[in-house]
Amino acid sequence: MCAAPMPPLAHIFRGTFIHSTWTCPMEVLRDHLLGVSESGKIMFLEEASQEERLAKEFGFKPCEIRELSQHEFFMPGLVDTHIHAPQYYFAGSNLDLPLLEWLTKYTFPTELRFQNIDFAEEVYTKVVRRTLKNGTTTACYFGTIHTDASLLLAEITDKFGQRAFVGKVCMDLNNTVPEYKETTEESIEETERFVSEMLKKNYSRVKPIVTPRFALSCSETLLGELGNIAKTNDLHIQSHVSETLDEIESVKKLHPGYKHYTDVYDKNNLLTNKTVMAHGCYLSAEELDIFRDRGASISHCPNSNLSLCSGFLNVLEVLKHEVKIGLGTDVAGGYSSSMFDAIRKAVMVSNILAINKINTKSLTLKEVFRLATLGGSQALGLDKEIGNFEVGKEFDALLINPKASDSPIDLFCGDFVGDISEAIIQKFLYVGDDRNIEEVYVGGKQVVPFSSSV
Ligand code: GUN
Ligand code: FE
Fold first, then answer.
1. Is there a smaller number of Cβ atoms within 10 Å at the N or the C end of the chain?
2. Which has the closest alpha carbon to 314: 287, 338, 275?
3. 272: how many CB neighbours lie within 10 A of its CB?
4. Are 36 and 42 in contact (CB under 8 A)?
């Protein structure tokens, strides 16, 4: 019997590909061929010497191959495991207060404004464009308590082609800005409406996520009901945990019947293998073990932890406890919407822990690169679909040009000995920016430069 002919490929690239695997934080694959199917899946990634065999197997001609120039390379798209889309409105400002005061003075009043759908449209369009341009191919978004504005965020994300989780924020407690909260019933009903509208839309790469803001803004009844909704519909869950010492003290007072902060979520079915919790700076060894046992993950948001003077997350300790971990920008507690900033700040925080002899070693740039790509995909339960260039995964990728016009990187003749050196890759990770990101792909589709239809 003859095999059915292969459907045509959407892309065949030849050049350098860098990515992480679980055994190697950064593999540099020079002079390789990568093929992407019409449905966006990676069909092969092999040495260019295999061209003839691959051409026969996949039915392509040499003229269909796009050759990257010598200094360009592909890397996997970045996964932002924690970002507040409405807070993009004030990103880069208002970082002069600790978390709880910051929420009261700046965050809640801003989020309240998202009842105005035109305002929401402007901010949400800008945050999706900016993050995509900065290389975020997957974002895990908090919206606000407003269902319609959160549905609009999902629609905009889908229109631009970004992969995302979108959450309508739930909060039935708010002593400091009482206008910005829901009743318990409203929060439950609106979450059900949000989830059902999202499932009706059936976006291919944008999914709903159950989003209790944090233990301090949710009653026990609400936490329990959100746990039930997530369980019934098999949904992802996101929230915040152990970000600051003041917050932990307040959680103890508000929810005295629990052993610790983690227990508040755990007892309410909110700690599952589809949960991602931001921060976790002060989690005890016992709490980390609960995270591992439940398969829940942590989003490390170093810019926010430094900007709001919240604390330091010890990533090496989290990894020692085998807890899944990715990186997040936490806009606007973090002032930068770029995951390259998250990478740099994660290295710096790790260095601070080493300087202070809390750890005997520091995370390497390559290990942090893995957290921002493969780690993030695992933290969001997407590691079978994305995170690196393994055959069978979707092609979420950034085409990087360290020599782009107006590039912030100065290169010298020694940087190019034949092919791309590791020094160039490191220079790009430390000092590159969106000017070096020539193209962005999500699920095999080019989404940056933006198409004229969005
Ligand atoms: N904890 C509860 N809400 C928030 C928020 O919006 N940002 C941060 N960084 N922490 C929170
Ligand atoms: Fe946050």
1. N
2. 287
3. 19
4. yes
- When pLDDT is cut at 50, 70 and 90, the band that residue 413 belongs to is confident
Per-residue pLDDT of 298-316, as tens digits, reads 999 999 999 999 999 999 9
Cα dihedral across residues 191, 192, 197, 200: positive or negative:
positive
Measured in whole angstroms, the distance separating CA 158 from the mean position of its chain's CA atoms is 16
* pLDDT the model gives residue 403: 94
Determine whether the shortest distance from the Cβ of 11 to ligand 1 is under 6 A: no
> Chain centroid to CA 234: how far?
20
* Whether 308 contacts 95, CB under 8 Å: yes
Lowest model confidence (mean pLDDT) among 1-5, 339-343, 422-426: 1-5
pTM over 0.85: yes
**Candidate from 82, 83, 99, 177 with most ligand 1 atoms within 8 A of CB, to mutate:** 99
Let me know how long the chain is: 454
Buried b (16+ CB within 10 A) or exposed e, 416-438: beeebeeebbebbbeebbbebbe
Cβ 76 vs Cβ 387: under 8 Å: yes
User: At 87, is the secondary structure helix, strand, or coil?
Assistant: helix
Which residues make Cβ contacts (< 8 Å) with residue 293, sequence separation at least 6? none
What's the mean pLDDT in 316-342? 98
The DSSP code sequence of 312-367 is ---HHHHHHTT-EEEE---BTTBS---HHHHHHHHHHHHHHHHHTTSSSS---HHH
Contact 97, 46 (CB under 8 A): no
Q: Is the CB of 82 under 6 A from ligand 1?
A: no
Return the percentage of the chain with pLDDT > 70, whole number.
Answer: 98
Provide the token pair at 298. Answer: 């942590």
pLDDT given for residue 420 in this prediction: 84
Give the closest ligand to the alpha carbon of residue 82: 2
Count of C-beta atoms within a 10 Å radius of residue 380: 30
Looking at ligand 1, which residue's alpha carbon is closest to its atom 11?
A: 240
pLDDT of residue 7: 84
Top mutation candidate among 240, 304, 306, 310 for ligand 1, by most atoms within 8 Å of CB: 240
Digit-coded pLDDT (tens) for 61-116: 999 999 999 999 999 999 999 999 999 999 999 999 999 999 999 999 999 999 99
Bridge-based pairing state of the strands 163-167 and 136-142 = parallel
Question: CB–CB of 365/347 below 8 Å?
Answer: yes
